[in-house]
Amino acid sequence: MSDELGDARTRDFDATIGPWIEPGYRLAVAMLRDPEEAHDAVREATVNAWRSLDRLCDSSQARAWFLAIVANLPIHDAQEVVGSASIRVPRPHSCMTGGSNRSIPGHRQRHEGPRP
User: Fold this and answer.
1) What is the DSSP string of 5-63?
2) What is the rounded CA–CA span in Å between residue 88 and residue 93?
3) What is the number of other CB atoms lying within 10 angstroms of the CB of residue 43?
4) Domains along the chain?
5) Which residues pair with 102 in a beta bridge?
6) E strand or H helix at 104, and its extent?
7) So what's the pLDDT on residue 38?
8) Pairing, β 101-105 against β 86-90
9) What is the pLDDT of residue 75?
10) Taking the CB of residue 67, how many other CB atoms lie within 10 A of it?
11) Dihedrals phi, psi of 67, to nearest 5 degrees
12) How far apart are CA 37 and CA 70, in angstroms?
């Protein structure tokens, strides 16, 4: 009986997630810019999806669910970090007491000053 349940789960998984493996790989390649790292990321995402398949309540949402698993993997560790950068975060006007901006280490500056 246990083998039958395992076979049914495998068929369900293949039917539900199988079509989204290749799009997941393309997403990982776009994020990582390295096909080998992307392959590893998708393999890990597939294992994570298998382990949490019971959390997918609506199989029509399988694409979004699986791609979110791929996108949310801690793959940033695999990307090379070059140099240190910081974001300048303006303080809210009510808190301004003559100080300028505070920096958040590890992030690039995108915007300074008030938005138009």
Assistant:
1) HHHHHHHHHHHHHGGGHHHHHHHHHHHHS-HHHHHHHHHHHHHHHHHTGGG---GGGHH
2) 15
3) 13
4) 2-78 (1.10.1740.10), 82-116 (no CATH)
5) 89
6) strand 101-105
7) 95
8) antiparallel
9) 58
10) 17
11) -65, -30
12) 12
